[in-house]
Amino acid sequence: MQDIRIKDLPPPHGGKLVERVVRDPRAAWKLMEKCSAVYDIKPTLFKGNPVRNVYREIMSVCYGFFSPVEGSMTKAELESVLERRRLLSGWVFPYPILFDISEDDFKQLREKFGEIGPGDWLLLRLKGEPFAILEIEEVYEINPGDVAVRTFGTPEKNPEVVKVPFDEKHTGYNIYRSLNKIILAGKYTIINEPKLRPPFDRFWYPPKKAREEFKRRGWTTVIAHQTRNVPHTGHEALMKMAAYIGDIKPCDGIVVNAIIGAKRIGDFPDEAIVEAHEMLHLAGYIKPERHMVTITLWDMRYGNPIESLLHAVIRQNMGISFHMFGRDHAALGEYYDIYATQILWSKGIPSFGFDAPPFAVPGGFYIRPQNIAEFWYCPKCKEFAYSENCNHKGIYSRYSGSFIRGLINEGLTPPPEIYRPEVYKVVVKWWKEFGYPFNNEKYLKEREERLEVDLPHMDIPEHLKKKIS
């Protein structure tokens, strides 16, 4: 396994990349002929605010980010994921991937199109245009509250890392408990390929395209930086230094993979996040030859160790060999131990189904962790110091996201020790564009209207128009 990673990019998780995108209109028409019903995709709402749109999961499945998952999970698959963090095939996978529909909508579908169940195909529309097909394998019901609790864990069942029970202050927990009860399980196929809107279009590197780009650049060892944030100088130090502590040699490339989708109120707008990371190499702080910004569509769950498993799935599928894991990885609040992800990737978490690290279990990963404590700016050293090295712990300046956001909210320009001036200009650019610097209810609702994609108008034969009207 080590040799594979030295000589070439790691294999996809599950052994083969999923790609379920039909680009030939005539082939798409043939698939549409088989559809028994039509459904317009709706967002998942929590207290009236959109917190998820299943189209992002369909995109990530069909373009291979979530390989080997091919669609909405059956009841047995869901149970396997919740109990063991494994697919029925045995491959590690952390989260339920579900197509949920309300009881009223399902009733209306049946009233309009007749009985709908296993063996039927459902045409899914997005923004009024044909988008994808769901081949229904099973219809079943869930208890959303139970799914939410079992997804993230409890202090009683997962005492190694879960500190307090999850509640409605946790965005990811709200996503699962806001799901509709009826689940339609089956494979997805995109039949009308969306176009990513600016600025996201230039960062769109699905796994197949990412692997091609890595090979074009001559990269065989690549390290991933997970982000949902505009980069401060601590992030920059993390990327630069982590890329030089790989198991084999300095990594050829540093890949920022930004999670794009609905996020908690208070995070930065996605547009600012991707362009600010891009600015690090445009402004020369990281060599462009070694730095690449990409995106994945996913409504973030803030699941700390659980989310880190999904990140490993996504990034190994992209061809990435190493992954940085720092303090409070993909976390929100104090639900998990701040080093829960590093505990998982260094020795495992038995209560979540891992008696060993995720790369050392059957069905696990080729990707390897770079577990890192903290970087801070030390005024005594006058440089970025790593917590395991610097001895001036009483005077260091730890980075606090809430402190930085507080500065910006007050209209204060963060000092260059915190934000590169060019990066802060990107924050201001999107602040002017939206009228606010951070994600809020207005942004969530406007985002749901525009999404990140445009669907081309699909010219279809007259008999199909009647069928899907």
From TrEMBL:
GO biological process: sulfate assimilation
UniProt xrefs under InterPro entries: ATP-Sase_PUA-like_dom, PUA-like_sf, Rossmann-like_a/b/a_fold, Sulfurylase_cat_dom, Sulphate_adenylyltransferase
Keyword set, alphabetical order: ATP-binding, Nucleotide-binding, Nucleotidyltransferase, Transferase
Pfam family, one: ATP-sulfurylase
EC number annotated for this UniProt entry: 2.7.7.4
Enzyme class: transferase
Domain of life from the UniProt record: Bacteria
Molecular-function GO terms, alphabetical: ATP binding; sulfate adenylyltransferase (ATP) activity
Domain Sulphate adenylyltransferase catalytic intervals: 202-429
ATP-sulfurylase PUA-like domain boundaries: 11-192
Reactions performed catalytically: sulfate + ATP + H(+) = adenosine 5'-phosphosulfate + diphosphate
UniProt pathway: Sulfur metabolism; hydrogen sulfide biosynthesis; sulfite from sulfate: step 1/3
Family recorded in the similarity comment: Belongs to the sulfate adenylyltransferase family.
Name of the protein described by the UniProt record: sulfate adenylyltransferase
Organism per entry: Thermodesulfobacterium geofontis (strain OPF15)
UniProt lineage: Bacteria, Pseudomonadati, Thermodesulfobacteriota, Thermodesulfobacteria, Thermodesulfobacteriales
